[in-house]
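Closing statement on the pyridoxal-5'-phosphate sub-project.
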Amino acid sequence: MIYLDANATTPVDPLVIDAMLPFLCEHYANPASSYADGRPVRQAMDLAREQVADLLHAQPEEIIFTSGGTESINAVLASVRALWPESRELVITGTEHAAALESAKRWQRQGGKVVRVPVHANGRVDLDALREAMRPGITALVSIMWANNETGVLAPMREIVEIAHAAGALVHSDAVQAVGKVPVDVKSMHVDFLSLSGHKIHAPKGIGALYVSKRVRFEPFILGGGQEHERRSGTENVPGIAALGAAADLVRQHFEDGTKSRIHAMRDRFEHLVHAAIPNMRIHGCLTHRLHTTSSFCLPEVDAAGMLILLDKAGIACSAGSACHANALHSSHVLEAMGVSARDAACTLRFSFHRFNTKSEAETAASAVIKAAQKVRAERGDESMVVTA
Ligand code: PLP
């Protein structure tokens, strides 16, 4: 299989597996243990906290380990709502992940108000609308994703933070798709909260982190034994935490070694080949502010559902533009928020590359897409699609 669905999840890096294995085998003690065996476990957690903090330019005590992006996002919204009940409003965009959208619904159920700021047709947040949405003393939190999981569009985080802070609101960024792909520096960006997930950066599923700036208060979402300095209870997922630390370290190494430009070139080559054969292909999202790993595009009148079946048979793993919930295709709220028609959304595919992909995989995938598109059109009795390669 050629795996081009890294925005869904990434393969665990063998070096990450090496880092976590000792904590599944010999070092299995509970980190809270008073006996000697607990010590290496606690040391591993300290190291991982430093590794994650270093990646974000944060301080170790600002990192809370969680079960992943979803929990981190839920925790931020719940905490802000609980601690600042008089500031009723939450500002989000229509292109957020379900974790934020569903947490926003809870915010509303708890008597708060949610303001949805529109995005432009290229998926970038409308900053004028954001400015207008801010209500000093009333807006508690602005929660906007750093990079979109469907299109890869990057948010103007610096401007977002400036606008929110000028109105006295806190800022959370869901950086689950951004971390590991673009530099994410919480200090220079001045975000107050940030969520990340291990399985998007070649660590296993079920581990993530939440950055909470020392400047802001935080109320725990999960209560119990008071782990994570009373901020997230539950016996720590030590193997996952060690894995996340190692994955964070590898991200930093790969920022230096040309991996980014290699993936970028691969993604561009893939898009170039598909476009050369199917000139009416339309790439979604801002071309200049887009993750170098992500390619989301519409092949007009070529149903994505049929494409997914053919591509699966050809050994290519990718996604439809529509979110897949419990194996059913639902229209994409992200594309809808960008003004893409339901028809075009149903003809959208997403390919997301990672560091283990190769140029030849990108080329094979492009030919498979071209062949599959021809077949889908032929089956519909429509031979008119221009295919030049
Ligand atoms: N936010 C974004 C942008 C995502 O892409 C995802 C996962 O798909 C999440 C949040 C949820 O993260 P997790 O799967 O770790 O709960």
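Residues 2-8+258-379 form a domain with the Aspartate Aminotransferase, domain 1 fold (CATH 3.90.1150.10). With this model delivered, the sub-project is considered complete and its resources will be redirected to Aim 3.
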